[in-house]
Amino acid sequence: MRNIYADSFETKSSEKALDLEHRRKINFNIGKYNAVVPKGKEQFTDLARVKELAKNRKWEAIEHLDLYLTQFEEQITKRGAKVFWAEDGEQALNFIGDICKEKDCKSIVKSKSMVTEEIHLNNYLESIGVESVETDLGEYIQQLDGEAPYHIVTPAMHKSKEDVAKLFAEKLGTDINLTPEQLTLVARRNLREKYVNAEIGITGANFILSDIGGIALTENEGNARLSASMPKTHIVIVGIEKVIPSINDLGLFWPLLSTFGTGQQVTVYNSIITGPRQADEVDGPEDMYVILLDNGRTELLSNDKSREALYCIRCGACLNACPIYKNIGGHAYDTTYSGPIGSVITPHLRGMHDYKHLSYASSLCGNCTEVCPVRINLHELLLENRREAVVAGESDYSERFAWKIWKQGSMSRRLMNQGNAPIKNWIVNKMFKGWSKQRAPLTFPKKTFNQLWQDSNKTR
Q: How does residue 460 score in pLDDT terms, banded at 50, 70 and 90?
């Protein structure tokens, strides 16, 4: 039976790989990122040591996830917040729907949350008659265009300023010749009205702070602060893996996230929220709810080899480094999380059967592992996913047959030396069409190394 997800990926990636204008745009934007990241790294006197410390702290958090999440719940509920544990997206949506009904909510402002994309929150809110407005500029652009985010950190990375100006002209009636600064002011004016009228604000969290019972938000636009403080109700929805042991760890993780995410030493706005408005405070929401989402994460946690993927701090550095991503873009993956980290975690979160093909969307060059600020061995985990798919019986007959023949040929010196290059080229490129369909043809040399060695010794 055909895998519709694999077929979709193959079709979209083939189209985008040949779209030179698309590749120009994303490589231009990634080039700007590559120009500033080295400057941000200068704040670390020993970057390798910092990465190792960060990995160790995430190891501590993930290995004792139950204890740190329980501590977080105990601390934040003391200050009046309510914590819900959602096993899957449906439970999370039901929690939010119940809150919307209780608050008689008609309008929501939303910020800083890939998790809400993961559970398709906007579609759900629309189905129950609640308007949901994205307030991050990139997300706002994507929502206007009816598209999902293209990148973990830069949702509209694939659009040029001309694309955005054209979109605003079509959707908002603005002058098509507006500058980026003018377009930003248009979005700001429209969104300010939404903040004032919204009954509920929804945010994600960059980190969950276990020891103080708080969530940490890092941003450059201030919209997360407005979403969390102006509406009377604040809902946080966050994956359980975002926990870190202590507020003191932010001195390590905030600069890392800023540098590897945007090339900054630190982002413009950094907030710690520990509950709703207190009796002695003059602003902030009256009610605060925190939804801790599992949605397959504990399945990944139970995997001894792959659980380190939960260390990810969502900086997006691996996407910017990946030669596959830079050629096919984010939408080809058809997943919330694209690029190397998405290819690693999606088969575990959404099923190996449907998404094992993503583990092959890699050159295995190791660049993703090299740039990861918490030293996740991404390229090795992609190989591990491939192994697990085979062990689970997800390989089809033709794949098993092809590798059996390849193994027999590779293990036999007689077969390896037999036949000339044209015959070998024909067998691999014509018989095994699955290999050459998405790759350049293999070209074998006229003689194997073994034959060249024998020839060399004969002449001595």
A: low
